[in-house]
Amino acid sequence: MTATHKPLGSLSVSPLSLGGNVFGWTADEAQSFAVLDAYVAGGGNFIDTADVYSAWVPGNKGGESETVIGNWLASRRNRSEVVIATKVGALPDLKGLAPATIKSAVDASLTRLRTDYIDLYYTHYDDESVEVGDFLTALDDLVRAGKVREIAASNISAQRLEESLACSAREGLARYVALQPHYNLVSRDTYEGELADVAARHGLAAVPYFALASGFLTGKYRPGTQVDSARSGGALKYADTDRGRRVLQALDTVAAAHQAEPATVALAWLAAQPTVAAPIASARTVSQLPALLAVSDLTLTDAELTLLDEASA
């Protein structure tokens, strides 16, 4: 493990997880390969995707991101050097966490990723119609079969997470080692509190998604500005709020002090939070990567963290 890498179960991950949601959506295969190459060259090793990426795009059916990543892994022959995380449960044809669904979905993901194991396998959304013991047994089977190294949860309540961890301990099943919550400077209550407390109590690593609030925390979406982006609607909803304006002002102040980009500061704030192992951020182009990778070199002072805490409260 390098000095900046953090443990995530038996895995060792870099400070920035590269989001794969754009691969096969706003970035074609050639662009995606360029971003993946630059990310690895910059010291990154933690790539996040899901079987459902990008089923929301007209003409796509899901699996596009995994296919791009699989083609990249095959062409670069670097499978053992990267940590691949994917998710189960949201693909239109394989929704939910029924054991048979998990079994079919993992094999389809392995085929698209062109690998015989997944490093980190998330339940994408909780499925309360399935007992935790049933889906955990299915996930445990995958770990025992060598198809999955570690398991994790995303979009789960504190109560169900606690229940899942208790079941794993009681039944001797694979246990969640990580949690992927919606968490950023303009969305703190989606993680802080009960959910974060469960993660801290059980030693789970948090890998926040929407770390840059659909791009809002890069600073390019300001009140009254027009940005041509597939995600501008999601970002602009924050621009006209008091909290959004306060957070941008605080980001600008801290960024100026470090000659850093606002995006780097927003990621560094997340990285400094208890339980957080690596925030997730995606890049459509190579030029967007340096500000993201720079999180590994930026340590905020206590005063700067307090400024950001107060602005985002």
What does this protein structure show overall?
The structure is a single chain. The protein is α/β, with parallel strands linked by helices and 313 residues long. Helices cover 41% and strands 14% of the residues. It is built from eleven helices and twelve strands. The chain has helices at residues 29-41, 64-76, 99-113, 132-144, 158-171, 194-202, 232-239, 242-258, 262-271, 289-293, 302-312; strands at residues 6-8, 11-13, 17-19, 46-48, 83-88, 90-91, 94-95, 118-123, 148-154, 176-180, 205-206, 280-281. The strands form three sheets. Strands 11-10-9-8-5-4-3-12 form an eight-stranded parallel sheet, with helices on one face. A two-stranded antiparallel ribbon has the order 1-2. Strand 9 (148-154), helix 5 and strand 10 (176-180) form a beta-alpha-beta unit. The longest helix has 17 residues, at 242-258. The chain is globular, with a radius of gyration of 19 Å. 52% of the residues are buried. The mean pLDDT is 96.
Summarize this structure as a short list of keywords or feature phrases:
single chain; 313 residues; alpha/beta; 8-stranded parallel β-sheet; two-stranded antiparallel ribbon; 11 helices; 12 strands; 14% strand
Largest beta sheet, briefly? 8 strands, parallel
Q: What spatial form do the alpha-carbon principal axes imply? A: globular
Q: Regions with pLDDT < 50 over 5+ consecutive residues?
A: none
H/E topology pattern: EEEHEHEEEHEHEHEHEHHHEHH
Rounded radius of gyration (Å):
19 Å
Residue share in helix: 40-55%
Strand order of the largest sheet: 11-10-9-8-5-4-3-12
Q: First CA to last CA: what distance?
A: 35 Å
What fraction of residues sit in β-strands? Answer: 5-15%
Helix/sheet category = alpha/beta
- Number of discrete helical segments: 11
* Strand runs, count: 12
Mean pLDDT rating: 96
